[in-house]
Amino acid sequence: MAAEGVRFDNAITQNPICTPSRVSWLSGPNPNGLPNLLGHFCSAGYASGAIGKIHCPEYWVEDSADYFREVCNT
After folding, report:
1. Is the pTM of this model over 0.70?
2. I want to staple 49 with a disulfide (CB 3.0 to 4.6 A). Which of 3, 17, 37, 67 is the partner?
3. Termini Cα distance of the chain
C-alpha cells in the first residue's frame, strides 16, 4: 500500500487522547454518510475488518467493515 499510496514518515497526532485521533483516522467527521476508511477499501474490492478498541460513535465504521469486533479492557 505504501508504494501506491501515501506514507507518513513523521506524523503528529492532533490530540493527545487516543479516541479523537482514532475516530479522525478511521472515519473523519462522517457527515451525511460519506464513506470512511473501511468503506473506501471495500469499494476498491478489499475485505476489511475493525478489531480491538475502536471507540468510534456507534455505527460509524461497523456498517462498512466486513468484520467488526470491538474489544475493550475494563
Report:
1. no
2. 67
3. 34
